[in-house]
Amino acid sequence: MKLYPIETGNFKLDGGAMFGTIPKSIWQKTNPADSQNKIELAMRALLIEDGNRLILIDCGIGNKQSDKFFGYYDLWGDYDLETSLAQYGFSKEDVTDVFLTHLHFDHCGGAVQMDLTNGGYELTFKNAKYWSNADHWEWATKPNPREKASFLPENFLSIKESGNLNFIDVPTEGNRLRNSPLGFDILFVNGHTDKQMLPMIKYKGKTIVFTADLIATAGHVPLVYVMGYDTRPLLTLEEKGAFLEKAVEEEYIFFFEHDPYRELATVTKTEKGILLDSTFSFSEVFGK
């Protein structure tokens, strides 16, 4: 097995929304804001090469929305999905599986692209199976008013219409599915959105957790640093607390989807709770 960080692009969101009830005087120390109170964020995917399978975890915002839409999110930087795949010798056609942690636009927008030949939309990864779960699919396709602007039908309805949509079983006991069809464990969490899925990958003797929107950046590690976007913030506190305790106990390495400058991190238990220990790049830990 080999893992590759895939930079799909960068954007900005309001810092206050990203840190909920935490005062700006505190969160800006780790995530400084611009003149519009926006902070810089990544949309980092993870590519798993495992035998004949090439599994992509999340796929960024895509490029099919209008200039007006993208203008809300201040896209910046030179990264894009295709260039990042090509850096490791892969193309979109090589991807066999696309695992979507959840269906918010910044995580799944790249799953579908414009069909320039026939009009409408088509799958970006034509040879891939797409993976979600039935509970979250129901949640996303019949969205509540709070999340409606994040669940864009053009980002995922074509997946079902294509016949390439597959559902992962939600565990009936506990919140961890062991040995999923993708070959890694999956942690299910419900505070941010219903049935978000976090991959837990055994790699070179370590457990790498793709933290998605449970812990968006290194600045979000402290327990009470919960995003204003979360639909059930008190549940996030509960889920995050249990996760952080396990992370210390089993020495997890966090893979940050949204931190533009810190790819990986570890945490440690202190008198002030579980806090960030070290941050490092993927190459520093696992080589190129």
From TrEMBL:
It comes from the Bacteria. Gene3D superfamilies: Ribonuclease Z/Hydroxyacylglutathione hydrolase-like. CDD domains: metallo-hydrolase-like_MBL-fold. The keyword rRNA-binding does not apply. Keywords: Hydrolase, Metal-binding, Zinc. Pfam families: Lactamase_B. Signal peptide: none annotated. SUPFAM superfamilies: Metallo-hydrolase/oxidoreductase (SSF56281). Residues 42-258 form the Metallo-beta-lactamase domain. One of its GO terms (molecular function) is hydrolase activity. The keyword Signal does not apply. Belongs to the metallo-beta-lactamase superfamily. This is MBL fold metallo-hydrolase. It comes from Moheibacter lacus. The lineage of its organism: Bacteria, Pseudomonadati, Bacteroidota, Flavobacteriia, Flavobacteriales.
